């Protein structure tokens, strides 16, 4: 029996100077990959040790379940600021990377990111902060809730109902997104030898994870994606026996829904209305049809019609859903016995670490004191840093990626690779162009209408484009020749589609034995839902993200955003582990990065709280477990659409912030009640606070409110329309948007990466998104095709530069 290979990151040493979910999730992903993660804590421990979203009592000497999940396989060292500085310096000297965030303990003393980098230049220092380490807002107070507001993510894609305030995406998803991006950025740094400062902004990860290229859309087309909140229809609806999510992401799915519900007369291929508008017109009839069926009846029909659908999961039911049971999507926490998600991706050929028990506070302090005394820092540093040589190129320079992805999840993964230097070749066909080319609402009568999609443009800069008719033998043969030149192949079709093209891992491996093949199906490669079409909204519903989004007296709202980019950044993490496995062993591998597995991981708190404490977490509008008060309040401003609909987000997480809010309000009598001086008291009297705070905000502009609260260190934000992101001075100062020239479209601002590196790049976008088939000749010539052969391929319709009629 061959020996089991070591995990890809075995021998990679990470010092964790972070606190909270973002840093905890980042280092969890690194630990899953096999890294040695040493968590440095203050004597009182990471605050997450005492945290429960449901408010469950954590007995002294034990840890909250969420901490036990995030800290699996890590080690804990207690360091007292001042007296233990030498110990921490020795740990850093022997490490490869450090993950840092603001919080209690030694990270706020002598161990700031700049100071660490100065003393330990070999390290990758990854700093996770709300706004980044530089810029005018770097020291401003923020929470995940207020960052969602600034990013435009609360308004999102028109989520919510027009008769109420917009609503944030529940479950602290922004923290997990930031952690996943931080892990990917850290591992990318490893490819070029480390020795750099990675400055990650949680505002920027929220922009990428919760909005859909709204600036590019607005600037290119002259209109916002949505100008009003409206329910997604049918979306999440109530059936006879529970909630079900049914979606229409394309016109064909709307036509199929009409047929499924017995209303073929609704189909109008020439309607001037969008499919969203047509569905809203028929909302009453659609909801009535859903209410007359069971969830299983609806899902069986929708699956037969190829319409995206899913049950609406929560902490109590998600583990028992047949698909997750069949795929063993959940495991038992190795220390405390509750249920937690399995890893967010599966890598055949490589070994991910099976979770080990989380450490008790300070469990490994003496071990590391002894190790440092006996071995010294120089030997330890030399042993770890020599693993990867230093390179001055971008992390993925020299890597070729065949990109057979479409829409959002897959292209977002390959876009990150392209922006960090990979040669990414985006494969389309004239019969089936990338779906994002078709969703901009450009009339087909307009010249080159398929090149005018801001979404396609936003997702595909720095890539090259080729068209191949894969229904022909010649097209498939050319694809194989292209794959033979590649390091990575990424696709995100349903398994049925990919396998019908003969693109199994065995077939691809026969062409390129050491290739890393990445498959990104919505629901995975096996299980009863494997062939179901998957858009973000059904992934969010099936994983439980939707359950926490919305008002308690209404059906949940679909976030309609998180599922895709979250899948993309998790797939990138898996690719980085697979590439490290290949570097060590010379062997390729197959990565299964199912969208739903990534979503289950960022929604982990629900199943954890239920299995550990019997608590089903509930949506609560814009209130949340981490702050009180936390809510949206109307200002006195009329918005750009002529409505009294300009909101402000406020979140108070500490007693000091409450004092600051009281001071801004003028210390009114009602706010001096002793009960309000504690978090528990403020939660108990949230309605009272809301009434007074709403009245105060209603008399002021948003700028006045932000100025009054931010100067007193109270987290506050304007609820921005997402297309107004360029007006945020912090993003401007950090160069988050870059203008991109295009041969068909005007120069347009495009979002970049959510982190900056001290080693560059200075500019992220080096080429516009490719025109359809723009690089056919160049790429085919690289494969050895002559001009005559390329001309015949054009004549035979194997390649082309316009959609087939």
Largest sheet: 7 strands, mixed
For the record, the CATH class of one domain is: Alpha Beta
What is the CA–CA distance across the termini?
55 Å
What percent of residues adopt helix (DSSP H or I)? 25-40%
Protein described:
Strand 2, helix 2 and strand 3 form a beta-alpha-beta unit. Among the domains are: 13-142 and 171-211 and 360-385, Rossmann fold, CATH 3.40.50; 628-714, 2-Layer Sandwich (formyl-coa transferase, domain 3). Mean pLDDT is 94; it is low at 376-387. It has 805 residues and is α/β, with parallel strands linked by helices. The strands form 6 sheets. A 7-stranded mixed beta sheet has the order 3-2-1-4-5-6-24, with helices on both faces. 36% of the residues lie in helices and 13% in strands. The termini are far apart. It is built from 31 helices and 24 strands.
List the main descriptive attributes of the protein structure presented here:
805 residues, alpha/beta, Rossmann fold, formyl-coa transferase, domain 3, seven-stranded mixed β-sheet, 31 helices, 24 strands, globular, CoA-Trfase_III_dom_1_sf, CoA-Trfase_III_dom3_sf
